[in-house]
Write a structure and sequence with these properties.
single chain; about 300 residues; Substrate Binding Domain Of Dnak, Chain:A, Domain 2
């Protein structure tokens, strides 16, 4: 863009006013502040991502999670832990990426600041020169107007004293009038010279103001474009983080699909079975019957002795 809007809309009819220029500078400063705020946001987001990634990494590596599981569910849990570890690494990597984007924003801000500095120095000098020359011109105008009033008063005095004073006194009045006329001519020349100088300074300032407006508008277009693209990229990075995490979680889902309840049950049975014969029923044993049998047989009864009749 060529900066056609700023230079057409930030003027003031007051020759000493810098309102238009100040308004643009304030807007540019606000733009720099906005970029700094986004830069700080990225840095803080990076710290959050890094802390989350490290905490997730510690959780994945140090916290037991189904460590006594077996067979297919055990393998699914191993995949789960691996993918959580990978997700944690992705968040740590994202933190590094965000810090890099913050650094780019900082470099852009500083670059624009340096570009503006030369123009601002020139404009500040032009404003001071214009203000100083205006003061000199107004002072010259006051002197010129006072000399004109003095001359007018001297002329009136000459007319009033035409028939009232002697020739010698009248001569003094004429000399004074002539002196004042010369003073008026000199002050008039000085006043006109300052007017001419002020107009030249005004034209130079106006030319610098136009160039500054064009440069500032180009800068602002670049800033808005850079900021917009940075925010767009940030959204893409966050979206990609979600996609990457979901791809990793999909691996866990696939491993869970391969998990077989029947196989895990069979695996447990085959590897931990203790036997297939249950214990026999415990029969009732009558105390007195046992004593009678023992006495008659001379030996202890077996475990399944029938009840005595």
């Amino acid at each position: 863009m060529t900066g056609a809007l700023f230079k057409a809309n930030f003027w003031s009819s007051d020759i000493l006013s810098t309102t238009g220029y100040d308004c643009i500078i304030q807007h540019l400063n606000n733009g720099r502040k906005n970029c700094k705020e986004f830069e700080d946001f990225l840095k803080e987001r990076a710290s959050i991502e890094e802390k989350y990634g490290k905490d997730l990494l510690n959780l994945s590596r140090k916290k037991p999670c189904g460590q006594l599981e077996i067979n297919t569910l055990k393998r699914a849990l191993e995949v789960f832990k691996q993918q959580v570890d990978s997700v944690a690494q992705c968040h740590i990597q994202l933190a590094q990426t965000l810090r890099e984007e913050a650094r780019k924003m900082e470099e852009f801000r500083e670059k624009q600041k340096l570009q503006r500095k030369k123009t601002e120095i020139l404009m500040d000098a032009a404003h001071k020169q214009k203000s100083l020359q205006f003061k000199k011109t107004m002072d010259a105008k006051k002197i010129y107007e006072q000399k004109c009033r003095d001359k007018d008063e001297a002329e009136q005095a000459v007319h009033r004293s035409a028939n009232l004073v002697n020739p010698k006194q009248q001569e003094k009045l004429f000399v004074k009038l002539a002196t004042l006329k010369t003073a008026v001519e000199d002050s008039d020349k000085t006043y006109m010279m300052h007017i001419s100088t002020l107009d030249k300074i005004r034209e130079d300032w106006q030319s610098e103001h136009i160039k500054a407006c064009e440069m500032f508008e180009v800068q602002e277009c670049e800033r808005i474009n850079f900021f917009r693209n940075a925010l767009w990229l940030h959204m893409n990075q966050l979206s990609q983080q979600c996609v990457t995490s979901d791809d990793m979680y999909e691996e866990v889902r696939k491993s869970l699909e391969a998990c077989s309840i029947e196989k895990d049950i069979a695996f447990f049975v085959n590897n931990r079975k203790t036997g297939q014969t249950p214990p026999a029923p415990i029969m009732y044993e009558n105390f007195y019957c046992l004593q009678k049998n023992t006495a008659s047989q001379g030996k202890a009864p077996g475990p399944n002795v029938a009840r005595c009749s």
